[in-house]
Amino acid sequence: MSGFPFIDADRLRSLLPMEATVDALEAAFGSGALPAAPLRTHLDTSAGSLVSMPATGPQGTGVKLLTVTSGNPELGLPLIQGLYVLFSARTQKPEAAIDGAALTALRTGAVSGLATRYLAREDAARVVIFGAGTQGRAHLEAMLAVRPVDRVTFVSRTPNRAEALAGWAREMGVTGDVAGPNAVGAADIVCTCTTSPTPVFDGSLLSAGAHVNAVGAYTPQTRELDEDTIRRARVVVETREVALAEAGDLLIPIGAGSIGADHVVADLSEVVGGAKVRRGPEDITVFKSVGVAFEDLVVARAAADRLGA
After folding, report:
1. CB–CB of 176/150 below 8 Å?
2. Rounded to whole angstroms, how far apart are CA atoms 160 and 147?
3. Whose CB has fewer CB within 10 Å in the chain, the N or C terminal residue?
4. Angle formed by the axes of helices 293-307 and 18-29, to 10°?
5. 134-146 and 159-171 helices cross at what angle (nearest 10)?
6. What is the pLDDT of residue 32?
7. Could you report the per-residue pLDDT of 27-86, keeping only the tens digit for each?
8. Among 65, 72, 134, which Cα is nearest to 106's?
9. Domains plus CATH for the chain?
10. Are 309 and 144 in contact (CB under 8 A)?
């Protein structure tokens, strides 16, 4: 088997700017024929977990293998590491390998960007981001790609990292600062990109018309959003099947009887296809993402095509 290219994090960013990645996902969600993808599998390891996420469709076949190691940040190592392998749709020959953590950051930010493009108010300019890691940065890039952001506030348990991201925001021409969770009260857009297993802010503080992207929790037992947030919101998910199997932000209040499964008003394909979620400027909207393997495949294919693989 001949060699195939490896796309590292820097090359991936140069091949696929955030706005182009949002556009690629928009085309896929609007196509009416999403790639097939089973639920992710988790294998507990001595140091953390191994996650496997395969998908197949017209774009080809691919699989992402990620390790999640909670002790790594204390060692100066990434929480998430991994690899994506893309195979040809026709011959199933390996076409490219991609840094798995970089691909995850890019596609997660981009799918939130896509949801924000359709759900947030057109004039949304004030962003609060929970989490100061890779996803915090990716989400700032995504919000800048789809809305006229003029201020971003980072909320994090690691203030030095939050200040570093706020400084980067200022370099991008945006007012950047660091604050506590109550900053959501002044936000037009809130992004939660944390590893917290419990809610990170008080949903009663959300202002009318706010939009929330929640991406950090992806198991039935964990959530970043409290029941106030979910009850007040018009909720959109990637797919109902995946969200109602994996999203603790929804499954926990469903289990408590606070909401029913029908509290999800649309999936992202329906939204891109024209479903109206926001009935007026006062509605609060939530996009709950757990990350779906077909998103990785779509973005991997877009990167490989730009590379000429």
Report:
1. no
2. 27
3. N
4. 120
5. 30
6. 86
7. 999 998 899 999 999 999 999 999 999 999 999 999 999 999 989 988 988 888 999 999
8. 134
9. 6-104+294-307 (3.30.1780.10), 115-291 (3.40.50.720)
10. no
